[in-house]
């Protein structure tokens, strides 16, 4: 009888699933795989095949995570926090260096990037920490400092790799979470003014030389067209040449002629917009808008404080990845190397994206 009731309860919960959420994500992934194929077919066919395999793995992970009651993360958040720290520490002992950064752990046929997992765990553990230690809302600078202290070890370890892009995304997602936790406006204004005042100090004393160069390139990419400004300049040429309707599938000359570096990863949007034009961009950006708004809607309709904060945090991660990556390809944001989730090639990134959607779905079906 008990097993029968459990099965009935499971099916009842499954009926609560927002199926359009995963269909929305799969539409973006289909666009991604076709664009990866177009961008890399002249060199190799392995990239789009690997991304297809990772899609299947991601879907399996999505279903597994959906079935896990998200409230278990609240119960074991201290274990998850410790796991996050140990995982990020392991990068310095086991990690391999690529492009001047030590962010990846090589596991033979695949490589994982712990910071990608780390930012999701930050959302979960921070949401749990706030829900447990601040019952009503955050008030005053002291409460913000306590919240910052919670994420500081993770930020420092990611910044040490160095991975400035992920650090910025965590900070911006942190801002979303504390704002949605009804932080008082006086503290928000103080933090905003402090952040603006901190920017010059960070630029001159915290950023490395190549990071400052990225900022200068963002401000004036034409100053070094054959050097630091090459990527963003070629990206803007690709996007502009797509015009209204695009050049058509497999006709992205900037990637085919290898003018556009990292065409299947960081600058995959440039390839897509060159082939599909402005109208294709409206479709793609609309899909991301719908995806993020669905996550926000689930947050808004969830009475449980922990589940609501987790959904807002995940929505923040998707949103800031979108803004940073698309802004980078259009020359309105500095180049940081952050992928466009669900679109850019990368197994770890795709897997984590599906896991995040699984967590959101879990909030929907297990919320009270």
Mean pLDDT: 86
Strands, total number: 3
Strand order within the widest beta sheet: 1-2-3
* Helical content class: over 70%
Number of helices: 15
Our measurement of the CA-to-CA distance between the termini, rounded to an integer number of angstroms, reads 24 Å
Which series of helices and strands comes N to C?
Answer: HHHHHEEEHHHHHHHHHH
Membrane topology: Multi-pass membrane protein
Function: Peptidoglycan polymerase that is essential for cell wall elongation.
Transmembrane segments: 21-40, 52-70, 79-97, 117-134, 141-158, 164-181, 188-206, 277-297, 309-328, 340-360
Pathway: Cell wall biogenesis; peptidoglycan biosynthesis
Q: Care to give the gist of this entry?
A:
The protein has 368 residues and is mainly alpha-helical.
Describe the structure.
The protein is mainly α. It is built from 15 helices and three strands. A three-stranded antiparallel sheet has the order 1-2-3. The protein is globular.
Annotation keywords:
RodA/MrdB, mainly alpha, cell membrane, 3% strand, 368 residues, single chain
List the helices and strands and how they pair.
Blueprint: H1 2-14, H2 19-40, H3 46-67, H4 71-75, H5 77-94, E1 95-98, E2 101-106, E3 111-112, H6 114-133, H7 140-160, H8 164-180, H9 185-206, H10 209-219, H11 230-242, H12 253-256, H13 268-300, H14 305-329, H15 347-366
Antiparallel strand pairs: 1-2, 2-3
Helix pairs in contact: 2-3, 2-13, 3-15, 5-6, 5-7, 6-7, 6-8, 6-14, 7-8, 8-14, 11-13, 13-14, 14-15
EC number: 2.4.99.28
Pathway: Cell wall biogenesis; peptidoglycan biosynthesis
Function: Peptidoglycan polymerase that is essential for cell wall elongation.
């Amino acid at each position: 009888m008990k097993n029968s009731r459990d099965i009935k309860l499971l099916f009842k919960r499954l009926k609560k699933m927002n199926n359009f959420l995963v269909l929305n994500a799969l539409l973006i992934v289909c666009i991604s795989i076709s664009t990866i194929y177009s961008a890399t077919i002249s060199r190799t066919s392995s990239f789009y095949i690997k991304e297809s395999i990772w899609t299947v793995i991601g879907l399996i992970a999505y279903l597994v995570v959906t079935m896990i009651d998200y409230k278990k993360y609240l119960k074991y958040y201290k274990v998850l926090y410790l796991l996050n720290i140990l995982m990020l520490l392991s990068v310095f002992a086991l990690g391999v260096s690529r492009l001047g950064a030590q962010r990846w752990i090589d596991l033979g046929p695949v490589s994982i990037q712990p910071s990608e997992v780390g930012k999701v765990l930050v959302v979960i553990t921070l949401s749990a920490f706030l829900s447990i230690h601040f019952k009503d809302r955050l008030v005053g600078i002291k409460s913000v400092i306590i919240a910052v202290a919670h994420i500081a070890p993770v930020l420092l370890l990611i910044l040490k790799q160095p991975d400035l892009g992920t650090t910025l995304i965590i900070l911006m997602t942190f801002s979303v979470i504390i704002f949605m936790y009804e932080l008082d406006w006086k503290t928000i204004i103080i933090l905003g003014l402090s952040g603006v005042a901190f920017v010059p100090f960070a630029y001159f004393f915290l950023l490395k030389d190549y990071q400052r160069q990225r900022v200068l390139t963002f401000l004036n990419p034409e100053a070094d067209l054959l050097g630091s400004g090459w990527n963003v300049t070629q990206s803007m040429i690709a996007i502009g040449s797509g015009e209204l309707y695009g050049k058509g599938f497999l006709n992205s000359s900037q990637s085919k002629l290898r003018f556009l570096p990292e065409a299947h990863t960081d600058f995959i949007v440039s390839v897509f917009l060159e082939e599909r034009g402005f109208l294709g961009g409206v479709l793609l950006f609309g899909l991301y808008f719908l995806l993020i708004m669905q996550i926000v809607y689930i947050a808004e309709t969830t009475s449980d404080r922990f589940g609501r904060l987790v959904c807002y945090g995940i929505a923040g991660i998707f949103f800031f990845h979108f803004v940073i990556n698309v802004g980078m390809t259009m020359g309105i944001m500095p180049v940081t190397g952050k992928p466009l989730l669900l679109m850019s090639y990368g197994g770890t990134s795709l897997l984590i994206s599906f896991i995040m959607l699984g967590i959101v779905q879990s909030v929907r079906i297990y919320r009270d």
